[in-house]
């Protein structure tokens, strides 16, 4: 046997005995054939039972440094042969568990036994064999009891008065079907929501937008933990079969990269909400979080959901998170599908409201088409669950688009009373405050949202927008650069950065960013309008007018916000056309009219009585 790693001792786990001295594996006294490398892999895992052994550690211990092989293939084959010898399964592990992106862990209790127990070799049914099995089982029970005692002590030792920070990494889709990504993404988002409500005073859960970048990542647990500044990571995987799901969850302590808890569940889809509650309770217990009374009561009540409604809801959120016209239109259809299946499904109404608000704000649809649907859906969500922070925030966003600033503020405050760590509520409330010219308060809310969800691209972009509307263009440029660096393909961050450059007087830089934004957005009319504003600010009148004419001749069926055209003519200093399009914006309830009081593009018109009258009519001047 190679001497890459010294192996010695005899270990018992269930009916198996691993004799490292003799290089043999026995099952109920009968020798099990296992080749050298699989045997050594098993030996390393058993010697470190309960701990994660990384793939690199296995390479160092099992594969000699002077041997050149395809290590990944060799290790995968070795693990497969070990599982076959032990009668174990990767899908339903009893002994060896795969830790995604990390390594493997031996999860069955192991005890060291005296070498004498293997002498003489036992025959089935012999007294010596029965005695050895009895001793072995006793050892296993003692080991299990010892592990339980150690685990309880470790829990007590780990208790800390400081706030615990936890991140739920994107669940892996093990179904072998890319069409099931909505399920793994949806369960990730749902677990984040459930854990975030447990006890905000003790537990901070990183929001979805900041963990999404780690989907499919090969970074180590330690590196991800450092980047997110977390104490714990939750990893998971989902495997879907027709009406059932198999979910595996790991709770990993970042400081020493050890598993604090792991479990696999095989459930009917209708029981998936109750399963999420069970996982949340267990994680709270493992990291010593005291549940808030309301949460303890909620988690104690089993929840079930119509499987078809739940699937449609998850698909809605999956497409909503894409923030594209096509994605939001698909999301709208799926949310409605969920509601049709279960008319009492409150979160589906919140999703429908957010979807229609988003279609309006991004300039994909006419406000008259989508805002009434958004308003009705948000009201119904609150009617179903008055304690839902998401529902109140959704209504607040709709009221902002309807120019009801005080009503929107009331809803945002109510949402934050119910869940002060709901990042979107801070995010949208910050916009409400900016619109009203309360820039210091707006920046405070935007920073809170960013602290809760630091890698969320839209939240980062709107933090820059808070600086921009307050005329702090240096701050907007710095924040815009930071967000662009996170994802150079995110159109909105280029839009904000370009607008800030233009107002700061860096026309060429601004134009380049705005052209990138327009291209990445699929030439969204609102984005194209900002390219024209940049041309106008640089004195390139003909190019600005060309875009204005292009937008006015856009094919029927594609919505073009008159507010963008008003911005173009304001930058061209064409007073007649500016007020013509502003009046059309008012008549059509154009959503971006919300920014009329603070939009720098209109600074040259603020003393005009017609402009003052418009501000009064949109309730921004009293």
Characterization of this structure:
With 622 residues, this protein is an alpha+beta fold. Among the domains are: 10-154, Winged helix-like DNA-binding domain superfamily/Winged helix DNA-binding domain (Arc Repressor Mutant, subunit A, Orthogonal Bundle), CATH 1.10.10.10; 164-301, Rossmann fold. The protein is 56% helix and 11% strand. The protein has helices at residues 36-47, 55-62, 71-86, 127-158, 181-196, 208-211, 221-228, 272-286, 293-299, 307-320, 325-341, 346-361, 367-384, 389-401, 405-418, 423-435, 439-452, 457-469, 473-486, 491-504, 507-520, 525-537, 541-552, 562-571, 575-587, 609-617, and strands at residues 10-13, 16-19, 24-27, 30-32, 52-54, 96-99, 103-106, 111-112, 164-168, 172-173, 203-205, 232-241, 244-253, 258-268. Strands 9, 10, 11, 12, 13 and 14 form a six-stranded mixed sheet that branches. Strand 1 (10-13) and strand 2 (16-19) form a beta hairpin. Helix 1 crosses helix 3. The longest helix has 32 residues, at 127-158. It is elongated, with a radius of gyration of 30 Å. The protein starts with 9 loop residues before the first strand and ends in a 5-residue tail after the last helix.
């Amino acid at each position: 046997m190679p001497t890459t790693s010294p192996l010695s001792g005899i270990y018992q786990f269930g009916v198996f005995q691993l004799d490292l001295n003799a290089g043999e594996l026995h099952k109920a006294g009968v020798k099990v054939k296992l080749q050298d490398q699989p045997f050594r892999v098993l030996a390393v895992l058993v010697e470190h039972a309960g701990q994660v052994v990384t793939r690199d550690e296995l390479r160092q211990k099992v594969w000699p440094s002077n041997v050149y092989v395809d290590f990944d293939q060799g290790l995968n084959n070795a693990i497969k042969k070990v599982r076959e010898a032990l009668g174990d399964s990767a899908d339903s592990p009893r002994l060896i568990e795969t830790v995604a992106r990390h390594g493997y862990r031996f999860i069955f209790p192991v005890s060291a036994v005296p070498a004498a127990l293997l002498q003489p070799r036992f025959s089935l049914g012999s007294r010596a064999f029965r005695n050895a099995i009895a001793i072995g089982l006793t050892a296993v029970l003692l080991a299990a009891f010892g592990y339980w005692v150690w685990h309880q002590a470790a829990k007590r030792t780990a208790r800390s008065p400081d706030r615990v920070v936890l991140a739920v990494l994107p669940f892996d889709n093990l179904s072998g079907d890319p069409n099931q990504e909505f399920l793994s993404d949806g369960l990730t988002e749902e677990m984040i929501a459930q854990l975030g409500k447990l006890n905000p005073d003790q537990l901070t859960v990183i929001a979805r937008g900041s963990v999404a970048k780690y989907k499919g990542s090969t970074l180590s647990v330690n590196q991800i933990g450092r980047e997110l500044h977390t104490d714990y990571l939750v990893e998971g995987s989902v495997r879907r079969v027709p009406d059932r799901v198999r979910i595996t969850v790991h709770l990993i302590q970042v400081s020493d990269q050890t598993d604090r808890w792991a479990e696999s569940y095989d459930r009917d889809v209708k029981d998936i909400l109750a399963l999420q509650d069970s996982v949340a309770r267990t994680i709270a217990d493992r990291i010593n979080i005291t549940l808030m009374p309301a949460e303890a009561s909620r988690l104690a009540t089993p929840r079930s959901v119509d499987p078809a409604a739940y699937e449609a809801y998850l698909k809605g959120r999956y497409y909503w998170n894409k923030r594209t016209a096509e994605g939001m239109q698909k999301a709208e259809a799926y949310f409605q599908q969920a509601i049709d299946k279960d008319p009492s499904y409150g979160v589906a109404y919140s999703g429908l409201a957010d979807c229609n608000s988003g279609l309006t704000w991004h300039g994909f649809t006419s406000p008259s088409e989508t805002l009434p649907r958004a308003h009705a859906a948000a009201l119904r969500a609150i009617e179903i669950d008055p304690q839902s922070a998401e529902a109140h925030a959704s209504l607040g966003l709709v009221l902002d688009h309807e120019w009801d600033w005080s009503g929107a503020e009331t809803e945002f405050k109510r949402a934050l009373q119910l869940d002060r760590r709901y990042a979107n509520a801070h995010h949208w409330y910050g916009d409400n405050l900016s619109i009203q010219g309360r820039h210091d308060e707006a920046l405070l809310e935007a920073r809170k949202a960013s602290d809760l969800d630091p890698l969320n691209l839209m939240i980062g972009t709107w933090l820059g927008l808070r600086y921009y509307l307050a005329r702090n263009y240096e701050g907007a440029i710095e924040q815009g650069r930071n967000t662009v660096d996170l994802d150079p393909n995110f159109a909105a961050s280029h839009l904000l950065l370009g607008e800030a450059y233009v107002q700061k007087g860096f026309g060429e830089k601004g134009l380049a960013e705005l052209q990138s934004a327009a291209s990445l957005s699929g030439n969204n009319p609102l984005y194209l309008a900002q390219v024209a504003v940049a041309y106008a600010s640089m004195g390139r009148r003909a190019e600005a007018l060309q875009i204005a004419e292009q937008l006015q001749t856009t094919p029927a069926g594609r919505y073009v916000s008159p507010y963008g055209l008003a911005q173009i003519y304001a930058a061209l200093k064409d007073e007649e056309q500016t007020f013509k399009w502003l009046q059309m914006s008012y008549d059509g309830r154009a959503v971006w009219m919300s920014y009329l009081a603070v939009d720098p593009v209109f600074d040259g018109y603020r003393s005009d009585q017609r402009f003052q009258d418009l501000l009064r009519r949109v309730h921004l001047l009293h």
